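Reviewer 2 asked us to include a model.

Predict the structure of this chain.
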Amino acid sequence: MARDFAADIIDPVAQEIVSNVGVWVDREVKPVASEYEHADEYPAPLVAGMAEMGLFSIKIPEEYGGLDLSFECYAGVCIELARGWMSLAGVLNTHVLVGYAISSYGTDEQKQSFLPRMVEPEIRAALSITEPDAGSDAQA
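Predicted model (structure tokens):
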């Protein structure tokens, strides 16, 4: 499905990125996703693979070392990741949304401090909310 989506609305370079992610998902993610899920284990090797493909820099501006690709490409990548294992799309989404917020609304100092390190990713964004017994539960 994502490959059809990608062919209809994104440029050839972005199509190739989405296609490459799809191939990686079929080869690397699908065979192990269930094991990680049932073991409740963080998929560090898969996240490293996402970093190697540059996915954590997909919406970070080029001036900070990012790919600065379209939202359509980003959506296609997310669809491919979710096709293999939804949790990987979540790992990427949090990082990309924080990077986009910093690049769009951050001060110059914040951009210089965080964005180049988010490209590597030397640092990664995370979802942080209160604990279930303290008034908020993300799993609810």
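The chain has a mean pLDDT of 90. Residues 38 and 51 are 24 Å apart (CA to CA). We have added this to the supplementary material.
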